[in-house]
Every structure is written in structure tokens, then in C-alpha cells.
């Protein structure tokens, strides 16, 4: 493909576009030569796992189109670095879609796991371990040779303990088990009242539709209601502390495998309530643990897009 839009009045030379796509939301940033972020925004969440169905592919393309529309207001990027949750290396169709929508050459679009980009936002290769919890959860380490190593991150059906989906599922499980034993008990629970308000009602049909009828990212947002009740409801507090213990397990697995290094904690689920990180610290005595937010993975991706090549061999 030659220059796709030579007469585009918004064309700006040298911009790098970074995309950080998670199940709950997709963040993007444009960086100018030199690394300054000149624009950023968010669109709906997406996952590469959605590419397994026609409906999922339509949703992914629609989200890409929404993102491209927002980006092109500021300029056409020269290169694109995109990290997608659930990405396993099959990038041809995703790459072509992004290239078409953003008016760039397909070989100017690089795709990889969102965790590889998130790690680069926290550490240089070999420096430390990242524990990330959004909709799901994962522990990540890129060694000095550039090889990516994981702990967890195998999906919400199998595990992803401590992530938003896990918190939501634990809350609903607790509520409905108590309802089995004592119908109407939910009315005495601040967490149950908040959860039922979020899912649309106290009937089982509402919870069933919520947990089985939509994408995992939408389900993960229920964790917000659980966290909001944690200071009033001991059951919610127990779930959040258990989430912290689950995330600490990921860090411990990497520490045991590769030796002592600092641990960074990131992702929206880790910021739901201080109890989560407090529980992590309690479970990891003596570990240098920092928890200063999302680390700007979309910013890091935008700056990575400014470089000709950044290769991270995967270790599935």
C-alpha cells in the first residue's frame, strides 16, 4: 500500500499511536517525536478472544472504528503499537482492520499482548515483576533477553484470581449461597443491595442474565459495586482482601522462579479499594512493592510506536 491518504488535511508526520485494549476499556494515546503525549482517550473494551465468533469480530471492528475516528481528529499516525488482552499472536485480520481504519500501511501496525506493553510501562527488561489486575489478572516478567514469562493470566473461566471478574463472581456466589440458606437475607447486606441494584433486580433471572449474557469486561465492572460496599459490609471486605491474596500469589510465583526483584502493581481492579493492595503487602513481607496506578500503558505504547522495532519474544 502506498500513502493511503496523501491529501488528508489532518495528516501529521511522525506521530506514534499507542493502544492498550482491555476487557473493560480501551485506552489510546498519540505521542509526537520526542515522546510527548499530544492526545489521548478511551473507547469500549475489547479482547482478542472475541475474534472467535462473528458477533465478537463485529464488536471488535466497531470499537476499532470508534477509536480511529477519535484518533484521526488529531492526525494520522506514522506507526501503531497495540496491546490487546487475550492476544495470542494471530494478528493478520486485526492488523489489516487497524491499518485500513487509521489510513496507514499494515506493516506500520504492531500487535502484541497488552501485558507486554504494561510491563514496559513499569520496568525495563529484567528489572522487576508486574502484577496486573483489570477484568482478569496476570503476573508478568520480561527477562534481560527480552523473553516474556507469565504467572496466571489464563482467563476468567479457569482462574484470573483477584481480577474484576473474579471479584464480581465471588460476590454473586456469596450472595446466592446465602439466599439458598436464608431467602431474603440480601436485604440485610449492603453489598447484596448494591450488587442487585447494579444487575437490575433481586430475582435470580437478573443475576443469571448478568453473569451469563454479556462479555466478561461488562461483568467485571460489578466489582465497583462490591468495592463501594466494603467499608459497610464485612463480606465485601473479605472478598477484596482475598483478591489481594490472589494477586500476591502471582508475584510470589515469579519471585520463587526468578529471584528477588521489585514488584509493581497496576490495573483498575487494584485501585478499587486500598484493602486490595494492603492484603498484597501483608502477604509479601519484605518485598519492594509499588502501587502507583495504571502506569500509563497506552503512553508507553505510543512511545514504543515511535521506534522502528521493539521485539519481545513470547513464552506462552
The side-by-side strand order for the widest beta sheet comes to 3-2-1-4-5
Q: What's the number of helices?
A: 11
Q: What structural class should be given to the helix and strand makeup?
A: alpha/beta
CATH domain class name of the largest domain: Alpha Beta
How many E-type strands? 10
- The level of helicity is 40-55%
- Give the quaternary arrangement of the chains: single chain
CATH topology of the largest domain: Nucleotidyltransferase, domain 5
The H-and-E topology, N to C, reads as: EEEHEHEHEEEHHHHHHEHEH
Strand content: 15-25%
Sheet with most strands: 5 strands, mixed
- Low-pLDDT stretches are 1-11, 311-316
Q: What's the structural domain tally?
A: 2
Task: Specify the overall morphology.
Answer: globular
| CATH architecture descriptor of the largest domain | 2-Layer Sandwich
Give the overall average pLDDT: 89
List the helices and strands and how they pair.
Blueprint (H helix, E strand, L loop, with lengths): L15 E6 L3 E7 L5 E8 L9 H19 L6 E6 L7 H11 L6 E5 H9 L6 E5 L3 E6 L5 E5 L11 H18 L8 H10 L4 H9 L3 H5 L2 H6 L5 H25 L4 E4 L7 H10 L5 E2 L6 H8 L12
Parallel strand pairs: 1-4, 4-5, 6-9, 9-10
Antiparallel strand pairs: 1-2, 2-3, 6-7, 7-8
Outline of the structure:
The chain is an alpha/beta fold. The two termini are 33 Å apart. It has eleven helices and ten strands.
Textual characterization of the structure:
With 316 residues, the chain is an alpha/beta fold. It has two domains: 16-118 and 297-304, Nucleotidyltransferase, domain 5; 124-285, 2-Layer Sandwich (Nucleotidyltransferase, domain 5), CATH 3.30.420.40. It has eleven helices and ten strands. It has helices at 54-72, 92-102, 114-122, 164-181, 190-199, 204-212, 216-220, 223-228, 234-258, 274-283, 297-304; strands at residues 16-21, 25-31, 37-44, 79-84, 109-113, 129-133, 137-142, 148-152, 263-266, 289-290. Helix 3 packs across helix 11 (297-304), helix 4 crosses helix 9 and helix 9 (234-258) packs across helix 10. The protein is globular. The protein starts with 15 loop residues before the first strand and ends in a 12-residue tail after the last helix.
Amino acid at each position: 500500500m502506498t500513502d493511503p491518504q496523501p491529501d488528508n488535511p489532518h495528516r501529521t508526520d511522525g506521530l506514534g499511536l499507542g493502544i492498550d485494549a482491555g476487557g473493560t476499556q480501551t485506552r489510546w494515546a498519540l505521542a509526537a517525536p520526542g515522546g510527548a503525549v499530544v492526545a489521548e482517550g478511551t473507547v469500549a473494551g475489547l479482547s482478542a478472544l472475541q475474534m472467535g465468533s462473528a458477533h465478537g469480530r463485529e464488536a471488535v471492528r466497531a470499537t476499532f472504528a470508534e477509536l480511529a475516528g477519535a484518533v484521526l481528529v488529531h492526525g494520522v499516525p506514522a506507526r501503531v503499537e497495540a496491546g490487546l488482552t487475550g492476544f495470542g499472536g494471530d494478528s493478520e485480520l486485526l492488523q489489516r482492520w487497524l491499518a485500513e481504519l487509521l489510513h496507514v500501511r499494515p506493516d506500520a501496525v504492531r500487535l502484541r499482548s497488552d501485558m507486554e506493553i504494561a510491563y514496559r510501562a513499569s520496568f525495563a527488561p529484567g528489572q522487576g515483576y508486574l502484577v496486573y489486575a483489570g477484568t482478569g489478572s496476570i503476573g508478568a516478567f520480561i527477562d534481560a533477553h527480552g523473553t516474556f514469562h507469565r504467572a496466571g493470566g489464563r482467563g476468567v473461566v479457569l482462574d484470573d484470581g483477584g481480577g474484576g471478574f473474579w471479584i464480581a463472581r465471588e460476590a454473586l456466589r456469596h450472595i446466592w449461597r446465602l439466599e439458598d440458606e436464608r431467602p431474603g437475607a440480601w436485604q440485610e447486606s449492603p453489598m447484596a443491595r448494591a450488587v442487585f441494584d447494579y444487575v437490575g433486580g433481586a430475582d435470580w433471572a437478573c443475576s443469571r442474565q448478568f453473569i451469563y449474557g454479556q462479555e466478561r469486561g461488562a461483568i467485571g465492572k460489578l466489582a465497583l459495586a462490591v468495592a463501594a460496599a466494603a467499608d459497610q459490609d464485612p463480606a465485601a471486605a473479605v472478598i477484596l482482601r482475598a483478591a489481594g491474596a490472589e494477586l500476591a500469589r502471582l508475584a510470589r510465583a515469579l519471585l520463587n522462579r526468578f529471584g528477588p526483584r521489585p514488584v509493581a502493581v497496576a490495573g483498575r481492579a487494584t485501585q478499587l479499594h486500598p484493602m486490595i493492595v494492603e492484603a498484597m503487602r501483608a502477604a509479601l513481607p519484605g518485598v519492594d512493592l509499588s502501587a502507583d496506578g495504571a502506569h500509563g500503558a497506552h503512553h508507553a505504547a505510543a512511545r514504543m510506536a515511535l521506534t522502528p522495532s521493539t521485539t519481545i519474544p513470547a513464552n506462552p
